[in-house]
Fold:
Amino acid sequence: MKKKIGIVTDSATGFSLQEAKNYPELTIIPLTIIDEDKVYDDNIDITNDGIYQALIVNGHFLKTSQTNREKVREYWEAALKKYDEILFLPIAQAASGQYDSAAILQREPEFKDRVTVYETGAASVPLKAMVLIALHLANQNKNLKEIIKALYQFRLNYECFLTPTTLSYLARGGRMPSSLSSVANFLKLKAIISCKEKIKSYKIKRTMNNAIKEMLETIIERTKNAFQQTLYVINAWCDKELLDKAIAKAQELGFKKIKVEPLCNILQTHTGDNTIGFAVVPNKYNIEV
Structure:
């Protein structure tokens, strides 16, 4: 008899509380957001609006952190009461200590041979897609090896880019060299950030218009049948003018299926407001985010 597999992820997927209700079989572990002396569970104790108020309106320096290991243990134990084994799909190892901490926890006797921690190399829209693919396959009674093989194939094909209006938030959180941030902000340059496997600077452009065009053209170049894919416009507290500009350029270049998707709270905390991005998540299962 095949083992019943449960899918567990964390809040870097960007599922809203309302969306999560559509997947009652999915377990979502909250990452941690720290506002001065207050510690919050992402999307439970503090919402996207609350983060915006603290970070942008009040100018607080917010930090993010992996989930406390004991809390991860509690979520895993609850999931294992319903499933024979679970597959944990956390935020990319390069973006957080969540994977490393979970990899240690899975070696404990109660979890050995019952919990598999997979390094997703993803966050936000691509991670959300990976979780939905895994959930789809688990519901089809695919085994763990089959699910992981599908996720590996997915990782080869997705694309995701972000361009913040300012690099100050990334530099303040240690995610970007302060020297690069200072020069780019002074010259009003726009840095394109590649969000695949690692969060890293991809290219520097003189204007946001050029950055938007570069991100879209790179996706077209790298994606097979790009215009048949859904293009996700990633919105991190963008004003209407910037969002409309991004959508218009995508339509001008030939994209037909366009959906606006918010950036997950954890990454928005590091990129700040008016960050725009794009992602495509090709997969043979026709899974839409």
About this structure: The two ends are 31 Å apart (CA to CA). The mean pLDDT is 92. Residues 124-139 form the longest helix (16 residues). The first strand starts at residue 5 and ends at 10.
